[in-house]
Amino acid sequence: MSTLWDKERVKRYIRLYGDPRDKKGTQSQLCKDAAELIPHRTPMLLDVGCGIGHLIPHLHEGVNSYTGLDLSPEMLKQAKEYFPEHNFVEKDATTFKYPNGVSFEVVISISMFIHLPEGIARLALKNMWEHVAPGGSLIFGMETLGNSVQIRPSGLLIRNQSPEKVKKMIAEIIPDALMTYEFHQRVVYQTTSDVVFTRESPNKLISHAPVARTTLYKVDKKL
Ligand SMILES: C[S@@+](CC[C@H](N)C(=O)[O-])C[C@H]1O[C@@H](n2cnc3c(N)ncnc32)[C@H](O)[C@@H]1O
Question: What is the pLDDT of residue 39?
Fold first, then answer.
C-alpha cells in the first residue's frame, strides 16, 4: 500500500490539489468543511492519513496539539516541509498504538478510507475509535457514491459504498457511539487533468464521470 504513495504520487497530489498552505482547491475545501466539525476545545487532535497536510491550515485556535499520522514516508516528508512546526508520525492506521493509553479528543481522517479495501477500513476504524478520548469525537470522510470499486492503472483503489452500508459498518464497529452525525455530500468529478466539485464550480465541469461523493461523519464517544 505505502509504495503507491511514492514521490511521483506526491507530485501528482500537489498538481491536483495544490499547496495546502494556499487553502485553494477541492481538497482544501473538503478539509475546511471537515475542520468545521472539530469541537472548539480540542487539546489533542490526531489526523490519520494526513497526507501532505491539507487539513492543517483550517484548524481553529481551540486545537492545541496536532499530530499527523501516515504510512507514506514521502507524503510525510512533504508535510514536514510545509509545516515544520507540527508533529508527524509514520504509522499504519490499522495497527498504530500509543503507549500508556494516550488518547485524543479528536481523531480525524479525510480521503483515506476511499483507498482502503473493506477489511482494512474496518480495522482502521476500530483502531482509530480506540484512540478517541472519552467525550471526544471521531470525524471521517467516506465516499458514498453507490457501491463501486475501481482500481486505477496506478494500482490505487477508489471505493464508494452506499450510505446505508456505512451506517451499518459504524453500528457494527462502534456500538457504544453516543451519537453519529452525517454531513453534506459532494460529488467529485475527475478527468486526467483536474478534479472539480459540482457544487462549488458547476461551470467548470469538464467531465461527467463521477468518481466519488464524500460524506463526512462525526461519531461522539461517551464521557
Ligand atoms: C488521498 S490522501 C489524503 C490526505 C489528506 N488526508 C488530505 O485530505 O489531503 C490519502 C492518504 O492516506 C494515506 N494512507 C493510506 N492508507 C493508509 C494507512 N493504512 N495508514 C495510514 N495512512 C494511510 C496515504 O499515504 C495518503 O497520504
Answer: 95
